[in-house]
Amino acid sequence: DGQLEKLKVYECKAYLRIHKLRLGGKKEELLNRIRDHIEVKLFGDVKYPVSSFVLNCKGDACKGDVVMFEQNIYRR
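-> structure tokens emitted (76 positions)
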């Protein structure tokens, strides 16, 4: 409700740094990144349901392995 626009650039960067997000860009880009992060944090399970990801695992998966996910995107 308009509160994000009141943030200073250094406050935006502090938020982004805490959440390990990209720090570069103009203030509007930083605000968009924060909005996106908040949206995913609050509504991520609705916007990106677990059923939209496919795990195509062949063989063993061990601690430290990198696992790549594919997301199925359906357009209506």
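Helices lie at 9-18, 27-47.
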